[in-house]
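Figure-free illustration: sequence to structure, shown twice.
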Amino acid sequence: MTKILVVEDEHDLSIPIRDWLSREQYLVELVDNGLEALERLKVYKFDAIVLDLMIPGVNGMEVCKRFREDGGVTPILMLTAKNSVEDKESGLDAGADDYLTKPFHLKELSARIRALLRRHTQATSRELRVGQLVLDVVARTVTLNGEEIHFVPREFSLLEFFMRHPNQVFSAEAILDRVWASDTLASSDTIRTYIKILRKKLGGEGKESFIRTVHGVGYKIESP
């Protein structure tokens, strides 16, 4: 599931944004100030950021600039009530990928997010492969030996995470940080349950499984 951080201090806007994007199957986290946004971005990974320009603490321009200076590559959609060319130019120069002027329709917001995610995906790779296992990030499909396998959104997100980092071992806690919301009630037991589901759907156990357990450390994906 695509994970989006929304940084907006106007609750009359942030709540509708969260509800709208959630209905479109995004996992949405809300923060209402720049300092908290920077803290979240240091600890958690997001697929896109919706960032208001005028927020308390550290403004959106500075959040964007610091995030990029620290090496952050997540696409950023900046929101602002200012519509001058100079303001947009400053935002883009600070590292924003796109600009949306208030007021806007939520349909346009989600269209802009889809466009950012497509561009980012194309830049990183649309198709992920581990042996005969193929995941299409854009079409949201998974095939194994040419046969399509259905995954619900959370299962797909977990498999996508593993396939973006083949042969890398991740603890249950690291997986929770990357694939689940930071305020989730999920636990290490949740990860174990989802690992079992992935293994079952991919048709392998033990040495024949794509998802391997590294005892005392965590999990990784590799071609069996």
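We now fold a second protein in the same way, so the two outputs can be compared directly.
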Amino acid sequence: MDILEDNIDRGKLIETAMENLKYSYAPYSGFNVSAAVLMNSGKIYTGVNVENASYPAGICAERNAIFHAVACGEREILAIAIVGGPDHTIIDYCSPCGICRQVMREFCEPEKMRVIFARSKTDYKEMTLDELLPKSFGPKALKNEGKIRKV
């Protein structure tokens, strides 16, 4: 088992992302990505990259997973596992783009949130979001001191 002191089962999170990779839709780039995000409720949500002929209309796997969690009422990310590669084949570690890092920042404590890049269930690298996105801009940087208005 890959549970460390923070009670995150890395093996399960990675395995979930790997199992979901087959659903990625990347007919233009041929680079498939899957993500599994663990929320503070203990639930895992998945997402894949979905490309579109109108390129900006697509979405990354990480944001897809996070938005899925948010749409289900979740608000705090503990960890995310990311896998990907050409033609549904994982050959190297897959790191999130800048936009995905910023979206992660909205829903976590960056010094605690774990970002896991995996090639297999046992071959992975891990960083905190704070290490991936230092000196980040987040909710507390706004004039309302991070208090989210209820609409």
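Summary for the second example: The domain at 10-141 is CATH 3.40.140.10 (Cytidine Deaminase; domain 2).
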